[in-house]
C-alpha cells in the first residue's frame, strides 16, 4: 500500500502538456539545460508556469495547480494511464498534497516552437506518509504546454514519468 501511494505521488509531480503550433512571433532560442540565464521570454514564461504549479502543489493550493492546466489536459498520475477528467485530477492532486511533498529540479530544458512548448526537467521529491514515514522519489518531468490567447502558458500533457521507459530497458 505504501509503495502504491508513493508511486501515485510520483506520477502526479511533473507537468506535461501538448499543444498545437501556431505562427511564431519570436525567434527560437537555444536549448537551456540549467537555470534561466540565456532563456528568452517565452522559455522563462514556460518555466515559470511549471515552477508556479510546483509551488502551488507544495502549498496545497489545488485551485492554483489546476489553473496551470488546460481543461481536459492529460495528466499521468500513473505511467501509461492519462487522466483527463478535471474532477478526478483535482482529487488526485488533493490526496497527494496531504503528504506535504517538496520538489527540487536539477535543471530545466525548455524548447518553444510557435505556440507549443516542451519543458523537460529531472526532479526529486520528498514527502511524508500519514504515519510519518519519509518518501523520496525522483524522475524526469516532461510537460507540453500551449500558449493561451492572453499570452500565458498552460499544460495540456503532464508526464512526471518520463524516465520510465529507460528504466524498464535496464
From TrEMBL:
<protein>
    <submittedName>
        <fullName>DUF4440 domain-containing protein</fullName>
    </submittedName>
</protein>
<dbReference type="Pfam" id="PF14534">
    <property type="entry name" value="DUF4440"/>
</dbReference>
<feature type="domain" description="DUF4440">
    <location>
        <begin position="51"/>
        <end position="155"/>
    </location>
</feature>
<dbReference type="InterPro" id="IPR032710">
    <property type="entry name" value="NTF2-like_dom_sf"/>
</dbReference>
<dbReference type="InterPro" id="IPR027843">
    <property type="entry name" value="DUF4440"/>
</dbReference>
<feature type="signal peptide">
    <location>
        <begin position="1"/>
        <end position="20"/>
    </location>
</feature>
<keyword id="KW-0732">Signal</keyword>
Amino acid at each position: 500500500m505504501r509503495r502504491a501511494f508513493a508511486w501515485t505521488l510520483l506520477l502526479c509531480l511533473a507537468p506535461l502538456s501538448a499543444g498545437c503550433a501556431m505562427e511564431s512571433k519570436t525567434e527560437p532560442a537555444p536549448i537551456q539545460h540549467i537555470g534561466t540565464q540565456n532563456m528568452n521570454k517565452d522559455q522563462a514564461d514556460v518555466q515559470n508556469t511549471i515552477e508556479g504549479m510546483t509551488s502551488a502543489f507544495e502549498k496545497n493550493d489545488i485551485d492554483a495547480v489546476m489553473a496551470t492546466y488546460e481543461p481536459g489536459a492529460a495528466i499521468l498520475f500513473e505511467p501509461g494511464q492519462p487522466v483527463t477528467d478535471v474532477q478526478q485530477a483535482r482529487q488526485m492532486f488533493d490526496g497527494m498534497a496531504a503528504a506535504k511533498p517538496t520538489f527540487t529540479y536539477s535543471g530545466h530544458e525548455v524548447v518553444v516552437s510557435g505556440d507549443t512548448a516542451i519543458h523537460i526537467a529531472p526532479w526529486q521529491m520528498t514527502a511524508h506518509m500519514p504515519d510519518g514515514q519519509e518518501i523520496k522519489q525522483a524522475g524526469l518531468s516532461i510537460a507540453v504546454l500551449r500558449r493561451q490567447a492572453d499570452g500565458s502558458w498552460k499544460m495540456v500533457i503532464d508526464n512526471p514519468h518520463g524516465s520510465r521507459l529507460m528504466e524498464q530497458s535496464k
